[in-house]
TrEMBL record:
Taxonomic source organism: Pseudidiomarina indica
Family: Belongs to the LptD family.
Residue ranges occupied by any LptD C-terminal domain in the UniProt entry: 298-668
A Pfam short name: LptD_N
Superkingdom of origin organism: Bacteria
The protein's name in its UniProt record: LPS-assembly protein LptD
Amino acid sequence: MQKKFQAPMWTVLLVCSSSVAYAQQSPRMPVPEICPVPAPLIQHPSQPIDNLEKGAIGVRADRADIESSSQVASFFGNVEVQLDDQQLQTEQAQINQLTGNINASGATLFNNGYVQVSSENFRLNSGENRAFLSGAKYQLTASGAHGKADLLSLSPQQILLEGSTFTTCPTDDPAWQLSAQQISLSEDEEWGEAWHAKFELFGVPVFYMPYINFPVTDARKTGFLFPTFGSSQKNGFEVEVPYYINIAPNMDMTLAPRYMAERGAQLQAEFRLLHSTGYGNYNVAYLAEDKSLADRDSRYLWRVEQAQYWGDNWRGYLNGTFISDDDYLNDFGSDFAGRADAQLYRHAQLDYHSEDWQVSMRVEDFELLGTYRSPYRTVPQIKSYYSLAAPLNMNFTLFSELSHFQNQDVSSDTATRIHIEPQLSYHLEQPGYDWLAELSYAYTYYNQDADPTLSHSKNPSRSLPTFRWRGRINLEREIAIKGETYTHTLQPQIQYLYIPYRDQSGIGIYDATLMQDDYQGLFRARRFTGLDRIADANQVTIGASTSLFDRQARETARISFGQIYYFENSRTQLFNTDQVSAENRSDLALESRFRISDNMYFNSSIQYNLEDKSTRKSQTTFEYRLDEFNLIQLSHRTATNLLENDVEQVGMLGVVELSPRWQLASNWYYDLQNSRTNDAFIALQYSDCCWAMRISGYRRINRNLELYGGPPQVGTPEFDNGISIQFIIKGLGRDNRSLLDMIEQSLFGYRHPFHLSN
């Protein structure tokens, strides 16, 4: 039967029936066994009552007893009450038609879409628009966070829990929970607050907090993240406690105090900003006095990164890291520079791009770590590149540069360089072949106020024509290998390069350095970066590259080899003390890359001297990579004819998922020349839905640059050993760094085998 009652505040729709139909639950997506989906408190939600006006109370029950004189309606048996998005299931309920108050005794189930609650009774105060449930168990619908409360009071803006617990663990026996005198949850803000809270691990109280706020979803919220504990020979016992500050949707900050028993207290801070026309990232770390040093000096790092875009043509970028001393990175580490880095690079740049013009203004600075002669700053450098399509498929370009250099140690040691280089080129490209011809003329002028002890001219100038011709043939065929069809390509190429000799000994070295002689480098038009040295050349480069592509056009194998043949030996060297090579050909450069399967890769690069029959440089890597949680990489590297000593090193790196809960990561690099381990790291991590613990240890060379004046000395070096323990509570704060990220912070780090030249 169905009957309507008129009341001053509410309209009550009564439906009595002996059988109740329930809405079918939507199927859940399968999830890994490690993280079971918490079972909803309401297994069989009520079917919504149709045609119910907003603000009206709808009731479905087996029996109703309505007293018109007292304006109280009582309902019995399978009672279901609906008010807008709120649903109540109980066995007995009374509704006051005059006030709109609802009382339910016995076991009740309540759901408003945000929270589900099972309780011993239910009371709704319509005047306060607040419901009260005692002896309650609750569960947040979106996140699965749950707990218990002696008394739960609910309003549209807030859930208030008295004598309550909170956890995001899906099990009934959680690994961790907050037990608090009072907990407040806000649906709109997606965060919670707790007063007089105890944090419990496996049922044991760990620490007490008078007040704590925490996220109840993945949304960002101001509050403490969980600390990291560690120990090392250099720093002693360490603890770091990050505090996250959510300033605005596009702005946040993290403060991370770090205590080191051997050094003192360090403050670290990061500020991030994101907007529609750019972004910014600012970092600082400061230690007021280092107790491990005799002079107890302060030590610091600060970094700024800023990108800005103005329309389609203009953009700016600023990036720089600054440290108090050369040993800072070795002693403290950083997310922005590796411990093995030999220099810090800083620059600010403003760019303009259009269809024909590219103009760049740059200020850059290098800081060499160690007692080396400081390099020159570029303050500033303005480059422009203009391109114009000329008749007969030719192209005209004009490159110009104005640079001012200043010695970092001696401010009077400066130089200004002007460079202009027009070029005319012709490029013909067909499916079976392509060739390129370039003719350029470079004029460079210097105004030098250099160190008087150096034999540099005041105003040297240099004029150099360059002719370059390169041709390639593209051959292709279909072949079958073990029943599979592949596309086999062969690309032989030849290049002739001519640059006459000019005496450049009167020009200082400001930004020039020797480039890598790999396969691609053999076909460059210049031997040196920068413009302080342009090497003479009368040479032919011959090389070839062959590849296999599968039916999906994926390259499964590539082999490349090439060599330069000199008609005349180059007389231009980087420094006047360098010896002119008398060899009539360069090292043979060979590169090979193989995709053995979708998960296995092999890469090798070799520079082999045919005269000495010796390997100058080589790097070989084999990798099996299933995903970022399962990979193994083996590597071998050699380098000879170095200033200090030859290098030969083998290495192993791996990240393995032992089980859904256990992961292991390790790397190991062994110096074959000196028979010692240069770098080793191992980490073991346990993780489930509620918490994770990571234990790691390392052993690495102590790169004391200020003591040794450069790289570690030959012989037995000083090593630094350390361990770290990190406990991660999921649901209150988390560490997004994977074990692979941690390995990348080691001395040598991880490199994908197809990008070893980086």
